[in-house]
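Subject: mismatched residue count in predicted assembly?

I count 601 residues in my input, but I want to confirm that the predicted structure covers every chain. Input:
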Amino acid sequence: MFAVSCFDPSSVYHTFVYRTSSPSAPVAMIASANLPAISADGSTLAVASGMSIAIYQLSMGSYTLKQTLAWTSLSSTGIGTITIAPDASAFAVSDQVSFTELYGWDSSTSQFVLAPSMPLSVGCTNLAASSQSSSGATAIVCSGFPSFPIYSLVNTMGSLLLSTQATISGSVPYAAAITPDGPTVAVSDGFDNHRRFGHHWYYDRNHR
Amino acid sequence: MASTTIVASATTGTTIATIAEGGLVAISSDAATVFVGEPNFSMGAGRAVWYDSNVAPIVTLQPMSVSVSLGSTATFTAAATGYATVQWSFTGSSTRRRSVLGGAILGATLPSFTTNPTTLAFNGNTYSATFTSAAGLTTTTSAAMLTVTSSASASGDPHLVGFDGQQYDFVGELGSVYNFLTDSEVQFNALLGSVRATEHLNLPGEFITAIGIKFRNHSVVIDGGSHRRAGSVTIDHRPADQQNHHAVLMVDGELRVEREVFVDAMSGEDFGLPDAKQRIVGRVIVTTPSYSFSIFMVEEGFDEVDKRWITPVPRRFLDLSVRLERADIATPHGVLGQSLHAMRDRKERGVPIGEAGSFSIEGRTKDYRVGRGAESLLGDSFVFNRFGSKSRK
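Triage response: the counts match. Full output below for your records.
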């Protein structure tokens, strides 16, 4: 399963979900939803909807809204990027400028819960998350500024513990990817058009 | 700004591989393949590149052999797909010891590599780039050769400059022919004569007044002329008459003989004669696969008082320049050929070319003497003769 978003003539974004084996027509559409992130099996879908994150779950062939999470009021900009772990054990959201929030899955309540000490004071141009390891840790890599921090979010029965397990230095971090089982990341630096999308452009705007 | 993608351990942050392109990235579940959408890819331009660590890099641009003049830098460029790192290496041959020098070049880790300003020690080195994938699979380009063009020369009475850039002293017997360069295919002899300054006084010193060149079964004799006659060229014992300012006198296989007739005034050494000036009135170019010989026909005798050239021209002689055309020439012998030996000797001993070396021309002057008079110009009966030998040394 994969999900994309596109906007209509009124510049309103909508999210479409496709089955990889038959991508000619979407299997679902979420109206007024942008920046989709979907788990590997397609069972969980996170989208930005205004200043909130909406969590949908696949049930009986259709997506049902299960949870709505408010984006931090500290951020002066909207939601910039969302990622969800392949096994939906965690998801992360950032405004790409100043703040990032990490959530873990609480199986006892079947809800995502905010990790402690959120939001992080780092903007991530791009985020990527692994599945949960046998020890309960989900690795989340952030193309932050001026480096690529890799967070470890350990989930013990819904109790979340966050740490930074590694940091990769960079000059203009732009994009990040991580293998589903988490041991390897690919991070991209120095994208020539970075100023159009990334930190410098927002940085200037915020400090004008 | 250079864009790069780093593949790293998520646990320690240790770099596993570096890809010299950046943009949007994705990585396969086994970390073997990285997708990089180059700048502007998402905007409908640019290109997408897959780096698959299970496939060795594929060279898309082989480095080209380069020929540069002494002191210039040389740049080699290669390209490949699917690589994480690149490392340039060089190989230099040691003719005398038949050993191979070289290895990885420190810091040469970009697809393009520029040498330091070349010395003759660079001559004949070969350069190749090894591309390594994220999984450690390697592909090495073909080797490109660096040729540092070098020439030896003799001018005036005569002043010798060797292939190694050093000046050499050589004083022969007037009226004798000496060998300046000899190897299995090429022989270059020069007649040292006095040059008449006035009806009653010869110009002091000895000058090259005639040259005999043999290449395989061909011969070229250049006569510098005298105060009574102009210079001339003889090929295979027949006069090579020339009607045009530039003429190709002969082309046979890998031998080419050209002659140019012109007047190029120059200020020369005055040899103690205040009014003496020089002008080059022509050039004979003899090209073989290993060497190019430029023999300049020089006249001297400008009347500073009357501002005219004295006729008949009182003094005629030859200057010459020999340029190496290949980097892998076996060590020749002869007065100038020995300096190539000196160059390699210094290279092997690590003595920077251009600094004073301890080399001196082997043997005694008489060991290079071919014979007496112009009839000996094509002779080869001297101690260090190599012409026609099967040995390359």
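Chain A has two domains: 1-70, 78-208. Marking this ticket as 'not a bug'.
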